[in-house]
Design a protein that fits this description.
alpha+beta, 7 helices, 3-stranded antiparallel beta sheet, 14 strands, 309 residues, single chain, 25% strand
Length: 309
């Protein structure tokens, strides 16, 4: 049996450190490095499309075509389509049209340039129903001036695209700032161990999962706070407040965009409604309250290797 080797690459993109590990035979080194560079380009491409912090991104350019169908890239169309599906499934509790609201809450500074992006849309309250899709045209129509926010799914989407580019290797692990996908086996030919960050003691995990061929994404109120309002964090209801029933929510799903968006949606819904939704979608979740009480979906325990309370 051939020995396996781990090849790694890290980069700063999409406001976080992206870490990629590929498990392959030692004679695959040249191909692996080429493929890792392709993966880096995937994350840069998705960022250039979905970022509301860059005035020249595709999301920002949609504002100039308000009121009429605008052809967009397949990547932007797919993210928008999926975001609207999650919005519909949550009766609008999750809503991708909160970009202007997020700007006003102070979440509008570019992580690289430190430049503040302020769109200042003077419009009435918007909802996901103000966004129309034209699949036959690959087009999106904004019925009101609004700013789409993909902070809850762009990294997961990029992970999915990157995983496809690496799917033929013996094992893959991608960690995009807490949005994780693992496939195959690690270099010891074992399942992957993925830690869920402790929401208070951030240097250690609160639980460890033993998994493969799944995405694991965690959303937490401890990550980013508003500089304008101490009661707000980066997960917000469409009308502007932030939920506090949970402090952390982790979702295990078949692909990254699903796990990413559902971890945010579940945080907004609260444990009881989130558990019902995740059960309907046949994905698993682990929910942590501010008092560190852990709730979980019925089959989540199958993934948990250990708790470290």
């Amino acid at each position: 049996m051939l020995n396996l080797q781990a090849y790694t690459k890290s980069m700063l993109c999409m406001g976080t450190i992206i870490s990629v590990k590929v498990i392959a035979s030692p004679n695959s080194e040249k191909n692996v490095h080429n493929d890792l560079e392709k993966v880096s380009n995937v994350f840069r491409q998705v960022e250039s499309i979905a970022s509301r912090f860059s005035p020249d991104s595709e999301v920002m350019s949609l504002l100039e075509k308000n009121g009429e169908p605008a052809r967009v890239s397949p990547f932007l169309f797919e993210m928008t389509r999926f975001a609207l599906q999650i919005a519909e499934a949550t009766d609008g509790v999750y809503d991708p049209t909160i970009g202007n609201q997020m700007e006003k809450s102070g979440f509008n500074r570019h992580y690289l340039t430190n430049r503040i992006q302020q769109t200042d849309l003077s419009t009435s309250h918007t909802t996901y129903k103000d966004v129309l899709l034209y699949p036959e045209l690959g087009a999106i129509q904004l019925q009101k001036p609004l700013l789409l926010d993909f902070g809850s799914m762009a990294k997961g989407f990029a992970v999915d695209v990157a995983v496809k580019a690496l799917s033929f290797y013996e094992g893959v692990m991608i960690d995009a700032g807490g949005d994780v996908f693992v496939s195959g086996q690690n270099e010891r030919r074992e399942l992957w161990k993925v830690g869920i960050k402790h929401p208070i003691e951030k240097e250690r995990p609160i639980a460890v999962l033993n998994v493969t061929d799944v995405a694991i994404c965690t959303s937490g109120s401890y990550e980013r706070k508003s500089a304008h309002d101490a009661s707000l964090h980066h997960i917000q209801f469409p009308k502007g407040s932030s939920p506090n029933e949970l402090i952390s929510c982790t979702v295990v799903a078949p692909f990254g965009m699903m796990a990413d968006s559902l971890s945010t949606a579940s945080f907004l819904l609260g444990y009881k409604k989130a558990k019902k939704l995740l059960n309907e979608l046949q994905v698993e979740g682990l929910f942590i309250t501010p008092s560190l009480h852990i709730y979980k979906t019925d089959r989540m325990e199958a993934y948990v290797d250990e708790y470290k309370l």
